[in-house]
Amino acid sequence: MAEIIYGRNPVWEALKARLKFEKILVAENATDPRLLEIIARAQKAGIFVQRAPLKKLAEIAGAVNSQGVVGLIHQQRYDDLDDILKISSARQEPPLLALLDGLEDPHNLGAIIRAADGAGIHGLILPKRRTVGLTSGAMKSSAGAAAHVRLAQVTNLNQCIDQLKKKNIWIAGADQNARQLYYEADLSGALGIVVGGEGKGLHRLVKEKCDFLVKIPMYGKVNSLNAAVAAALIFFEARRQRSAPSATPPPPRLP
Fold first, then answer.
1. What pTM value is reported for the model?
2. Better pLDDT: 13 or 94
């Protein structure tokens, strides 16, 4: 079964990442420079390119504005958790992971993937249930970052957290009722950042398994941020702390 991606940036980034395409459909009579670049790069890689009316592209993409290009790739393969942890080893960095708990909006997922790529997150972990998967809408919203960020899908998020703790990775949960502000917490060591769903936040058991909780201060009338915005702030704060000369990782977890 093929995975559908659409939009100039997502298809271009998927080509750069050398994802395995079945074919690419481009609007007939397209003259846009980026679309012509996509055609040239696809043909150079031996990928079949088909011209089609915009109406046909919209039907395939399930969206009115396909930006003139739709790609059919072999269904997205989720990585194993160990594969993601190998990335941090290859970069000679302590693991920096994101775990998503109950996220339902594919556009939020796409925005989180984009933020994760920008902050150098080593991988995202999604449970198979109660969280949206990597849909074409999520890939479009990621602006191409989904082609570069590694994702793992786990059966049980609570068990995954236990597994990460055994590997000496600390777990921080984003919770608006937390006492500690996110920039006051030590996020410099091996860390998994758990982000909850829209409006619901973290599930009770997931929250209880977190080593500590952090919140983002709010100064207006609204008491919380969009999940993707909150995730981005914490991701980049963790990256900032890792780059700080005085950064000292937290002590090893006791057995």
1. 0.76
2. 94
